[in-house]
Specification:
Two copies of one chain form a homodimer. Chain A is α+β, with helices and mostly antiparallel strands. Chain A has 15 helices and 18 strands. Chain A has four domains: 86 residues, Uridine Diphospho-n-acetylenolpyruvylglucosamine Reductase, domain 2; 119 residues, Uridine Diphospho-n-acetylenolpyruvylglucosamine Reductase, domain 3, CATH 3.30.465; 109 residues, Alpha-Beta Plaits; 89 residues, Alpha-Beta Plaits (2-Layer Sandwich). The radius of gyration of chain A is 22 Å and the shape is globular. The model of chain A has no long low-confidence stretch (mean pLDDT 94). At the A-B interface, strand 9, helix 7, strand 11, helix 10 and helix 15 of A face strand 9, helix 7, strand 11, helix 10 and helix 15 of B.
């Protein structure tokens, strides 16, 4: 549509000329996310306060233009991509940690704060914010709220929704609400907090988040466990979870993933390795020591080739850096990937491994799998070249097969990336038409004009 | 209204003659909950399956009559009381534990299962379902879902919402939905699961619940700590939570509560005691031992009169039985109570203690406080005789003062009992008109005819 001179001037007045742009080359920077899809916005605004967000949305309702909230643009399903154009509202200037309340174990933060900044700042005070998506060094907490981000530590600690006590948010009308509580418990009316968490910026623009914190675990122990088959690794995961020990992470890298990151590891891969588990324990020092021994024994009883325990935090960090680099490094294989974050029940992981091997065979495409095995959340990447129409079609077919198998195993098509734009057509297969009608009804209650991030989750 | 012969006959056909009644004396049994308020239903039905629930609601939509879902009727805010008459739908016949899946740490249960039956059955398999409201030996899991029940273990483990992975539920139209996932993670669309949890039976009738389970903690240690002032006990709570140890419970009993249960304790109260903390630790044996010592030292450094550690489970159980009996035993003081489950930030508990003492003075009424101090959740009981109009008015004024002080301290008016009918008039003070309008909008999406438990949460 492009913005008329009058609306554009009003936006300039709200956030200042320097915080608004409609230059094509600048708009291009806010046209994509990690999916690689690209839809050009008509303008991009960087509000500095809740007040400005409110004025922008009020103007959007009056003038009936689209607003698409965006953090760092590291999403995996196009959640922040302006698929219908409009104004992209970037929260990165609202990047203050407002308060870390050590007595009550809560932090109040603005949406544009980088997640790893939260980790660092609270850990300085011996506190702990568990959710740790792989993009934590770049992604914003606002984006994590939008998609209900997970990450490796969810095995023990849960996901973003479990740490959001309350929100301040601006409705499409410009009205500001304060949801939830600043206390450990609260049930005053419907749970609007958790309704907004995971709503992918379609219901409200979050302007302040009250996070629940935990005491920082005393000790962390990181282990790398190597197997000569994916099957054995998968069975080890399912048996580890049956112990009375819940590791904070059980990550899984298949053969292809392992060789992609080989060069950035601080050790040589054992001969014949086909799968790696990264198992991380935390808690009381003595307890962690005892559990690590038990898990080591369990791994060997499942034919592990080798179990390496990181000597110190630096060595552990190197392992994690390699793991976290996986998502971008995969483009070495092909120019494009369909990255699906399916989840299956833990004891169905071995079945899922078989399914992905089968899909690789039938599609003739490379399928790279890694992910959060401890909660059954496998990131399955189907690699293809977009320019090759046949490859693209085979990749699409492979995704269809993958999702069908996932649902058949009692799983979900998205554990932590959300539906965004890429999974819109698959959502009805999982949740059915009645639920989608309810969700559309809820969307209308919050956003009767459909101006806030339209085209996401459902059509 | 009373049911016409034709509708009544159709209901008889759905659930069988023996599972439906409109006899006044039988209806009376389903006219109240633990608040003591009484509104007579027109009929009571006991469906035996989801199919029957669906047919009942379909008929209710067609014929436009009210349906009020009910579990055991142990609620504290009138959530299941048929304030506008209609058909009470009692879920107690749907009382099957359908599946306990040890490999995937989940249980599937029907809404009428008694919560302590879930505890017992999963613990036999070395699993653990943490939420444990005081009424657990009588209340149903469906009611716990409706109100998002909490209980003492929420300090460490969170509340009901944190253990509900997915639901099957019947909408007022009779349509059945299946929300959420059967896996550890899932973000497929808006979070309808947690929207229904805590919605007090106003959005849908839950017919099946998928619960997340944990490994059963190896050891549990229960301590009774006595103080000569409520203030010192409150300060100890706030300081305990600053340790890197999170007890699974920190319960608090004031002077009045203590003397109410004195006769059922297995030990004599120490001289001069004015407050008791019950602190319970769980986890690995050695770690629990170490933590118990640390906490004992901390308590003595806050002038504890005495710290008793339960020798065995039987002794601990006796302490808990006394604690859990508190709610009913309070009627020894007066015929009625206003039982408010306020929550304040943990470090504001000492302030809240001062407030309740002040309210006791100004109202001239006995105020008995106990509750889940570890998460700031105080059950504050204002005792009065309903027949005494002046006492009733003073009690109402005392509640106004209590809520005003709670909100001023950054708290919430309900931690785990819900709004029901008793807090409808107070809700706007906490969450404001805009949020209430959103909630009403959501209610209309689910229940356009307003036939499901009307008159609750908001007018």
């Amino acid at each position: 549509m492009g913005f008329s001179g009058s609306i554009y001037r009003q936006l300039q007045q709200i956030s200042g000329k320097q915080n608004l742009t409609r230059e094509r080359e600048e708009c291009l920077c806010y046209a994509y996310d990690a999916t690689g899809t690209c839809f050009l916005p008509d303008a991009v605004i960087f509000p500095g306060s809740e007040k400005e967000v409110s004025l922008i949305l009020k103007l959007a309702s009056t003038e009936n233009f689209i607003v698409v909230p965006r953090g760092a643009g590291s999403g995996m399903t196009g959640g922040s991509v302006p698929v219908n154009g409009g104004l992209v509202l970037v929260t990165t200037r609202m990047n203050q940690i407002l308060d870390i309340d050590e007595n009550n174990f809560i932090a109040r933060v603005q949406p544009g704060v980088i997640v790893s900044d939260i980790h660092n700042r609270v850990e300085e005070k011996d506190l702990f914010y568990p959710p740790d998506p792989s993009s934590s060094s770049v992604c914003t907490i606002g984006g994590n709220i939008g998609e209900c981000a997970g990450g490796p530590r969810a095995v023990k600690y849960g996901v973003t929704r479990d740490y959001v006590l309350g929100l301040r948010a601006v409705l499409p009308s410009g009205k500001v609400i304060q949801t939830g509580v600043r206390t450990a418990k609260g049930v005053a009316g419907y749970d609007l907090t958790r309704l907004i968490v995971g709503s992918e910026g379609t219901l409200a623009v979050v302007t302040e988040i009250t996070l629940k914190l935990l005491p920082k675990p005393q000790t962390v122990k990181t282990m790398a466990v190597f197997f000569d088959s994916m099957q054995k690794a998968a069975e080890t995961v399912s048996h580890t979870m049956r112990q009375a020990v819940v590791p904070r992470c059980i990550e899984y890298l298949d053969d292809a993933s392992l060789h992609l990151v080989e060069s950035s590891l601080s050790f040589a891969l054992p001969e014949g390795v086909k799968a790696l588990l990264i198992i991380e324990l935390d808690g009381d020092g003595d307890k962690v020591e005892k559990d690590a021994k038990n898990i080591q024994n369990l791994c060997f009883s499942h034919d592990a080739l080798e179990v390496m325990i990181a000597k110190d935090q630096a060595e552990a960090q190197k392992l994690w850096n390699a793991r976290k680099a996986l998502s971008p490094v995969m483009y070495k294989i092909a120019t494009n990937k369909m990255n699906e974050d399916i989840v299956v029940p833990i004891d169905k992981i071995p079945d899922m491994v078989r399914v992905t091997q089968e899909i690789q065979k039938t599609s003739g495409l490379k399928v790279v799998s890694f992910g959060h095995a401890g909660d059954g959340n496998i990131h399955c990447n189907i690699m293809y070249h977009k320019a090759d129409k046949d490859e693209f079609e085979r990749a699409e077919k492979a995704v269809d097969d993958l999702f069908a198998a996932t649902l058949k195993l009692g799983g979900t098509i998205t554990g932590e990336h959300g539906v965004g734009m890429t999974k819109v057509k698959y959502l009805p297969q999982e949740i059915g038409g009645t639920q989608i009608e309810l969700m559309k009804g809820i969307k209308r209650v919050f956003d009767p004009q459909n101006i806030l991030n339209p085209g996401k989750i459902f059509h």
